[in-house]
Request: fold
Amino acid sequence: MLYKNKRELNAGVKKWKKLLRLQDWTFTAALTPNRDINGHIAMCSVSIPRKHSFLHIGSTEKDQAVAKQCHEASLIHEMLHCHFESFRPDDEEAPLEYEMWEQAIDQLSVAFRDLAAQSRK
Ligand SMILES: [Zn+2]
Reply:
């Protein structure tokens, strides 16, 4: 699924905030050109004390990575970071642990997306 505009993105945030049990968090979400997020598919910043996260979902459709991208899985991935931020390994001191931490979040995001799609059928 690709979110075509901010309204669709915000509807996704509202849906996944409830499903991921993040109702006590606030989110500011934007469709952001991938060049503005260092070429990443998506990005977030998380403030645990404020229980707030900025979510950037890559929007540049010409980008090959984005062509294969599922905005919903990216959104879920970035929102899951709120739950896992306290356990984030330092990516320079522990690159393997950091990569495995990212992969676990990524696998969970795809699993949640697929489970939600199945429950709609
Ligand atoms: Zn991540």
About this structure: The chain has one domain: 6-120. The radius of gyration is 14 Å. The first helix runs from residue 6 to 19. The helical segments are 6-19, 64-67, 71-84, 95-120.
